[in-house]
Write a structure and sequence with these properties.
Length: 74
């Protein structure tokens, strides 16, 4: 997601509050929001996958290796 897309999301949000959106703009807004949420989820997943936890026995468990291969059905 680049700066131009974020600016467009904000522009559409401000316009929706002030004068309203056309059906085309509503579709664009929904598409941009889906792309934004997908980018946030991907970023969060990569951060979580890189977390290492030191277990009480001294071993280190990487959460990405332990849980990353599982797929969620949400």
């Amino acid at each position: 997601m680049d700066v131009h897309q974020l600016d467009r999301i904000n522009t559409l949000a401000h316009k929706a509050k002030s004068v309203g959106l056309t059906p085309e703009e509503k579709e664009e807004q929904a598409r941009l929001r889906k792309e934004y949420i997908a980018a946030i989820r991907l970023n969060l997943r990569s951060q979580l996958d890189s977390i290492d936890i030191r277990e009480p026995d001294g071993s280190i468990t990487n959460l990405g290796e332990k849980y990353g291969a599982k797929t969620s059905q949400s």
